């Protein structure tokens, strides 16, 4: 997984972050929102309602 710490130039960080996304994903917010929603469903399935709610909040924040 890409670690964004210790990067000096913002452009370099942005370019490397985009490279780390799965093929076909061009927007980090779209990716984070989708993954957060899926993880929320998994957490809820395991009975962890608190974690599911936090992940749903992350998904909503990624939309805006």
Describe the structure.
This protein is an all-alpha fold and 64 residues long. It is built from three helices and no strands. The longest helix has 18 residues, at 28-45. It is elongated and about 35 Å long. The two termini are 25 Å apart. Mean pLDDT is 78; it is low at 1-10.
Question: Secondary structure elements and their pairing?
Answer:
Elements: H1 10-20, H2 28-45, H3 49-63
* Residue fraction in strands: under 5%
Number of DSSP helices? 3
Query: Quick one: biggest sheet?
Result: none
The amount of helix comes to 55-70%
Q: Report the span from N to C terminus.
A: 25 Å
| Residue windows where pLDDT falls under 50 for at least 5 positions | 1-10
Overall shape: it is elongated
Q: Which structural class matches the secondary elements?
A: mainly alpha
Determine Rg (CA atoms, Å): 14 Å
Mean pLDDT across the residues is 78
N to C succession of SSEs: HHH
Strand tally, please?
0
Q: What are the key terms here?
A:
64 residues, mainly alpha, 3 helices, 0% strand, elongated, disordered N terminus
Quick summary:
This protein has 64 residues and is mainly α. Helix content is 69%, strand content 0%.
